[in-house]
Amino acid sequence: MAQHIGIVACSAEGAALCYRTICLEGSDLLGKHSHPQVTMHTHSLGEYMACIETGNWGGVAKLMLSSADKIARAGADFLICPDNTIHQAFDLVVEQSPLPWLHIAEEVAMEAKRRGYHRLGILGTRYLMEGPVYPEKLADMYLAYSIPGPEDRGRISEIIFDELVTGLFRDESRAFFNQVIERLKNNGCDAVILGCTEIPLLVREENSPLPILDSTRLLAKAALRKATSATPS
């Protein structure tokens, strides 16, 4: 029997993509129409943003732990969070968590290493691009990185919060993201991390100037591998 996956969600579109990936790709491992049990809980994105915007990562951790406790009571065996930005509170969370976690940036970094990339562009919210989540995990894998310039970071963050998290995916925004990726390519990057879980719904591999590392689907696939590699203790 596969382990029960718990999803600590934050923004709806990224969490939904992660959930769908687990359910649809579970059949590759478990048979037609089959997937592990999944329990998801989320507090309001507004509650998270009130903490993020003031740098209150302890408050973010409390919200994540509240979801973790509810999911643990539902019988989950381990947890994932399909939101890159709030992983800045991850170390505060794991100290008190009732269950073990997978780390989204760690899964992305391991995949980048496996594929033989050397320098990665990082796209995400301003908090993510300017924060420690990816630099720490990439350093563990001896991978270099670049982030877009200040103006591009501002515009990317606006698109994420004003469009993507609300399910709005505009061609003009897709073209802008591809322009930013082209600039990262010119800066020596050989792949780009889609480090906001909504970005994969906008940026497509076939149109991207660089190979993409889809953090949402990579986390979902890692959860499937863990869920199907061993039975609960």
The gyration radius over C-alpha positions equals 17 Å
Structural class, by secondary structure, is: alpha/beta
Question: What's the CATH class label of the largest domain?
Answer: Alpha Beta
- The total number of structural domains is 2
Mean model confidence by pLDDT: 96
What percent of the residues sit in helical stretches (DSSP H or I)?
Answer: 40-55%
User: What is the makeup of the main sheet?
Assistant: 4 strands, parallel
Q: Characterize the overall form.
A: globular
What spatial order of strands do you see in the largest sheet? 5-4-6-7
Strand portion, in percent? Answer: 5-15%
Poorly predicted runs are none
How many angstroms does the end-to-end distance come to? Answer: 11 Å
* Total count of helical runs of at least 4 residues: 10
State the CATH architecture of the largest domain.
Answer: 3-Layer(aba) Sandwich
Helix/strand order: EHEHHEHHEHHEHHEEH
Q: What is the total tally of β strands?
A: 7
CATH topology of the largest domain: Rossmann fold
Describe the structure.
The chain is of the alpha/beta class. It folds into 2 domains: 5-103 and 217-229, Rossmann fold, CATH 3.40.50; 104-214, Rossmann fold (3-Layer(aba) Sandwich), CATH 3.40.50.1860. The protein is 50% helix and 12% strand. It has helices spanning 12-30, 45-52, 57-73, 90-94, 104-115, 126-129, 133-140, 150-162, 171-186, 215-229; strands at 5-9, 38-42, 78-80, 119-123, 144-146, 191-194, 212-214. β1, α1 and β2 form a beta-alpha-beta unit. α1 (12-30) packs across α10 (215-229) and α5 (104-115) packs across α10 (215-229). The longest helix is centred in the first third of the chain and has 19 residues, at 12-30. The chain starts with a strand and ends with a helix.
